[in-house]
Design a protein that fits this description.
Layout (H helix, E strand, L loop, with lengths): L1 H12 L6 E6 L2 E7 L2 H4 L6 H13 L7 E7 L3 H10 L3 E6 L24 E4 L3 H15 L2
Parallel strand pairs: 3-4, 4-5
Antiparallel strand pairs: 1-2, 1-3
Helix pairs in contact: 1-5
GO molecular function: tRNA-specific adenosine-34 deaminase activity; zinc ion binding
Protein name: tRNA-specific adenosine deaminase 2
Subunit structure: Homodimer.
């Protein structure tokens, strides 16, 4: 999660919402990303999607079974769908998103019986560190 926080910091420096993600296979990072939606004018430029794309390119397959994604903010519905489509085995996230979180806060798409894949979820890892970055970012934007 500390590497995901480094990615979140990189997003913040770029003027993006500070969310970072990594994909881990075994003991190595195979994908990483941070939010780039604003700078790229791309609504799919979320940290999770970028990390999944990076991992797929490095591994040579868009299916990423037996991987773990670490992300600083609970995924939105779009990102949760991408995690399911990639067959990511586990998700570890930091800050909860009660308004749009799709991993248990507002809804739970990742463990839905309607989906053809389930992704086990661990929530609240380094939650204070992850939440403080988001809070600080939005306080600065409102000045």
């Amino acid at each position: 999660m500390r590497v995901a926080l480094e990615e979140a910091d990189a997003a913040s420096v770029s003027g993006e919402i500070p969310v970072g993600a990594i994909v881990v296979s075994g003991d190595r990072i195979v994908g990483r990303g941070h939010n780039r939606s604003i700078g790229s004018s791309d609504p799919t430029g979320h940290a999770e999607v970028i990390a999944l794309r990076d991992a797929g390119t490095r591994i040579g397959n868009y299916r990423l079974p037996e991987t773990i994604m670490y992300v600083t903010l609970e995924p939105c519905p779009m990102c949760a769908g991408a995690l399911l489509h990639a067959r990511v085995g586990n998700l570890v996230f930091g800050a909860r998103d009660p308004e749009a979180g799709a991993a248990g806060s507002a809804m739970n798409l990742l463990e839905s019986p309607l989906a053809n894949h389930r992704c086990q979820v661990i929530a609240g890892i380094l939650e204070a560190d992850c939440s403080s970055r988001l809070k600080d970012f939005f306080q600065q934007r409102r000045l």
